[in-house]
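2024-03-11 09:14:02 DEBUG pipeline.ingest accepted 1 chain
2024-03-11 09:14:02 DEBUG pipeline.ingest length=304
2024-03-11 09:14:03 DEBUG pipeline.predict start
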Amino acid sequence: MTILKGKSVVITGAGQGLGRAYAIRAAEQGASVIVNDIDGKFAADVVQLIKGKGGRAVSVVGSVADWAVAESLTRTCISEFGAIDGVINNAAMHYIEFPWEENAAQIRQLIEVNVLGTIYCGLHALKAMIAQRRGSIVNVTSGAHLGMELRSTYGASKGAVASLTYGWAGEAMPYNVRVNALSPVALTPMTEASIEDQKRFGHLKRPVGDTPSPESIAPLANYLISDLSQGITGQIVRMAWNQISILAHPMDVPPSESREGWTENDIAAAFDQTFRKHLKPFGVGVKTYAWDLGNAENGGRVKS
């Protein structure tokens, strides 16, 4: 069964890695595909590969951080294929570095691609999807948004993508448009470069050969943009080492305390008597952290 037969989809960052795998798999499942990448040769190669297998594909070259390029993705999809049924917001940048060693240029470039690029492509697609009363957007986030060493800015950008997913899902739900996020772990050119950097920092946790291929993630991306996932929206679906899970949404957790006119001492007493024992571990990947008042030797920090 070709689950995307008759569908038209846009996939950003589709020249290499996960985006390439998403584009090829979507075409194999019957979709007509807009292949976006900043590298025209990579995009053209994917288009030719899809066409060589009898599929339909058109490339749009340029950065998603350019409003005009983002708009052209939706416009080209509609003009070439008649509609826009799905978007996979995959294009992203990544680097690892100690926060105090980052510089303004690399931060700005990463945020422009990962955050503004996702916003720009999503907004243009949403406008068209709301008008046609159907569509599915899949934003690509990362477990790094839960807190990962050497990736604070990258994690922040992916946290923004998660927040966009929640907000857009609620706004678009009345119009039969769904918005979910995918949090994948796969061996791509981006992660291969990251692995080399991790070796430099001494933070490599898993062997390279243990990391799944991009092709192993593509069926989940297809599922989320297909009609098989009707009724699923506002979710972050993680696929890591062949395991699928749903990430919890940020929310208030019990206990809570109420008081008129809180003072600093009142707040300190509430933390000492109630909240400290409920503090949550944080971080994902190489290390996670919690706080333990009995562990004064390490400033209260416990790592695992």
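2024-03-11 09:14:41 DEBUG pipeline.report The first helix runs from residue 17 to 28.
2024-03-11 09:14:41 DEBUG pipeline.predict end
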